[in-house]
Fold this sequence. Notes:
Layout: E1 6-16, H1 20-23, H2 26-39, E2 44-51, E3 57-63, E4 66-73, E5 78-86, H3 92-102, E6 107-117, H4 118-121, E7 143-151, E8 156-170, E9 175-181, E10 185-190, E11 193-197, H5 201-216, E12 221-226, H6 231-236, E13 244-249, H7 252-261, H8 263-266, E14 274-278, H9 281-287, E15 293-299, H10 313-322, E16 323-332, H11 340-354, E17 359-365, E18 373-380, H12 393-402, H13 410-415, H14 421-426
Parallel strand pairs: 2-7, 12-13, 12-15, 13-14, 15-16
Antiparallel strand pairs: 1-5, 1-6, 2-3, 3-4, 4-5, 7-8, 8-9, 9-10, 10-11, 16-18, 17-18
Amino acid sequence: MSFDGALGRHIIVEYYDCSSEILSDVNHIEQAMLDAAKIAGATIINSTFHHFSPFGVSGVVVIQESHLAIHTWPEFGYASVDIFTCGTEVNPWVAYNYLLENFQAKNGSAIEALRGQLAIVAQGKNVDYGDHAHSEQPAPKYNRNTWLTDKDENIALSVRHSGEILYRKNTPFQKVEVFDSYAYGKLLAIDNMVMCTEKDEYAYHELIVHIPMLTHKNVKRALVIGGGDGGTVREILKHQGVQEVVMIEIDEAVVEASRLHLPQLSQSLDDQKLNLIIGDGIKYVEEAESDYFDLIVIDSSDPVGPAEGLFSEVFFSNCYRILREGGLMTGQSESPRFHAEAMQQLFSVYNKVFGRENTHCYLGYISTYPTGVWSFCYCSKDGANHPLNDIDATYINEFCANNELGYYNLEIHSAAFALPNFVKELLNEEVTV
Ligand code: SPD
């Protein structure tokens, strides 16, 4: 089929003064381009979109009738778009108008070119395509290609998801989202960083909780800072002796997202032993009673945005103060490959507050965090409850036999504290030969 003497219409579009926020949101851009294609009457075959660091999105939607492509410059509020459609069924100007509005563009301009002008292409029409020339084609299967990328300037971890945003809230603190990933199930992301996924969350939560709980053996009162998804609380409550858990999460949206989409994580958030407070963890520890908790778990996001203060000396000094004798603190302490500097700084603060001999580093394999290697701190208030010398193998094995765990076991407990030389060097620890 042809349009006005040509095989297709190609409009080359400029959108100016668009919303910068929209132009840097890869999911939004992809959805808008797909919707534009649909509204224009096209049949979608495939799409692939990419977010560039620090700015910009590029992507293409392949349609049965040709393609739509985009490149955005959010820093200039500018997007360049190509809309190329063949046949008479699809009107590219409908897509143009839709995107103009969707990107909140103040100005748009476009030029149209007729592609494959029949008077010229007809000269090659005597090629014989046999029976295929008019054969019925099966309906194309649309294969969407959308990825969440957790990255810094040089390293990234990407997880493919369905493209449907199950949950999204831009809160005063951060952007909280839930996606449906193909390899790891539902995925909770904060500001594009993976927090946890259904399939591998247990590794992180078991490590941050059972290592201190099973070394201490008698935790009655536990405090969780962050952890709004509920995974840490779920693991703490597997220990029968626990009487009280306080969890203080700054962002209600994290709890809401988990309750709505991650029941496996949020299942313990209504437990009677839990006092769930939506508030500021820094303020909470500042005002909390001294010598109260047996265990503090810092289940924070990364040290950007609202979690930044959770990595300071004042905060850890208060954690130290509110721990009871023999009390322990564990926390996620970033990756020795992805956030080497942040990890180094964190350990220098732990050392300062808890004493070097009472501060230990352990590692775990978290497949959905960039580089896969993640570190945790283990700090003891007064040197009691050494993570290797004070464990009881029978006690640990009994707990493991009664609870279905996916990562933690007796061997992992000790092995987690065995540090590669590059991590020891990072932490200025002696490397033994
Ligand atoms: N880069 C990821 C670090 C996230 C640590 N907290 C995750 C919250 C899971 N409860």
